[in-house]
Design a protein that fits this description.
Chain lengths: ~110, ~110
């Protein structure tokens, strides 16, 4: 039982490049979330999904897109990376909104 | 909107010292309150939670009491260990809102 996994763990991009971060969970959770963590700002919600085939905007969605084609996977895409997107990205999942969110280990992204 | 304010770190204590990390919140209605812990290089883990006023959450020797009159959820531990060194996040979740609102985090270092 791996819980929530994220790939890759680290990535360096140049401005304007694109990439996709993958989150996978094996707990059959309906809800999945993408957060970014920046120094002095805690975690902020980028996008979330309430079930397979659904996505919704969070607090800071600009510059990101997401897809939830399979229940166990939640992808976060950056179409044209900017230095302001340098951050640590965390994926989380939960069975229901009121339940505990389980977090992945994070992806450290640097955009030069 | 909802917000969480927690004491700024970093906090450095000697082993076996008493720990308090302050957390206050602003929210409408009756949110659930959480403490998450992030150990070095890992994702966030739920440490404890409380879902209504006067509830006390506890885990691993840590405690926090949901105080509605003071809108607070302070984290305490009677005798800290080196293994408690981590970043601690206070968070709230309001009914009907999909997202967790996090504080900025408090880095705790315990020295032997």
């Amino acid at each position: 039982n791996a819980g929530v996994t994220q790939t890759p763990k680290f990535r360096v991009l140049k401005t304007g490049q694109s990439m996709t971060l993958l989150c996978a969970q094996d707990m059959n959770h309906e809800y999945m979330y993408w957060y970014r963590q920046d120094p002095g700002m805690g975690l902020r919600l980028i996008h979330y999904s309430v079930g397979e085939g659904t996505t919704a905007k969070g607090e800071v969605p600009d510059g990101y897109n997401v897809s939830r084609l399979k229940k166990q996977n939640f992808l976060l895409g950056l179409e044209s990376a900017a230095p302001s997107q340098t951050s640590v990205y965390f994926c989380a999942s939960s069975f229901a909104p009121a339940n505990e969110q389980f977090f992945g280990p994070g992806t450290r992204l640097t955009v030069l | 909107g909802d917000s969480v304010t927690q004491m700024e770190g970093p906090v450095t204590l000697s082993e076996e010292a008493f720990l308090t990390i302050n957390c206050t919140y602003t929210a409408t209605g009756y949110p659930s309150l959480f403490w998450y812990v992030q150990y070095p290089g890992e994702g966030l883990q739920l440490l404890l939670k409380a879902t209504k006023a006067d509830d006390k959450g506890s885990n691993k020797g840590f405690e926090a009491t949901y105080r509605k009159e003071t809108t607070s959820f302070h984290l305490e531990k009677g005798s800290v260990q080196v293994s408690d060194s981590a970043v601690y996040f206070c968070a709230l979740k309001n009914f009907g809102n999909e997202k967790l609102t996090f504080g900025t985090g408090t880095r705790l270092t315990i020295i032997p």
